[in-house]
Amino acid sequence: MKKAGILNRHLSGALAVLGHTDLVVVCDAGLPIPDGPIVVDLAFRAGTPSFAEVFEGLLDELVVEGAVAAEEIRGANPGATALLDDRFPDLELVPHEEFKALTRAARLVVRTGEARPYANVILRCGVPF
């Protein structure tokens, strides 16, 4: 049994198979999830677990070289905006419809219970060297 880090066996296993340039979507409870990617659904109740909690936990485990979010996040969700801007000063912003289309290329989708709008990000995996 793991003693630290992500303990959810489905999520831990899905992270272990990721490679350079693979895309990981961290999404709120309402984002449509396309067919294709591995999905780890962590949603329990509205707001639990939060986008921030899952996002921070994933960043502790992954090397990330870039991130994409919907431009609508700027006006609709100041908390998520601040969190993403803090971690990714070069955050790429695209219209929400384009963001949803980009999720089709994801290798992994991690669904949170987040109930605030546009709390979604696509992470592009990097390498540790």
**Helical proportion?**
25-40%
Separation of the first and last Cα atoms: 28 Å
Q: Please, how many helices?
A: 5
Q: So what's the overall shape?
A: globular
Low-confidence stretches: none
Q: What fraction of the residues are assigned to beta strands by DSSP?
A: 15-25%
The helix/strand order is HEEHEHHEHEE
Order of strands across the biggest sheet?
A: 2-5-1-6-3-4
- Beta strand count: 6
Backbone CA Rg: 14 Å
Structural class: alpha/beta
**Mean pLDDT rating:** 97
The biggest beta sheet reads:
6 strands, mixed
Which properties best describe this structure?
single chain; 6-stranded mixed β-sheet; alpha/beta; globular; 5 helices; about 30% helix; about 130 residues; 6 strands; about 20% strand
Summarize the structure.
The chain has 129 residues and is an alpha/beta fold. It has helices at 9-16, 51-61, 73-76, 78-87, 96-102, and strands at 23-27, 38-41, 64-70, 92-94, 108-111, 121-125. It has a six-stranded mixed beta sheet.
Walkthrough of the structure:
- The protein is an alpha/beta fold and 129 residues long.
- The protein is built from 5 helices and 6 strands, in the order αββαβααβαββ.
- It has helices at residues 9-16, 51-61, 73-76, 78-87, 96-102, and strands spanning 23-27, 38-41, 64-70, 92-94, 108-111, 121-125.
- A 6-stranded mixed sheet has the order 2-5-1-6-3-4.
- It is globular and about 40 Å long.
- The model has no long low-confidence stretch (mean pLDDT 97).
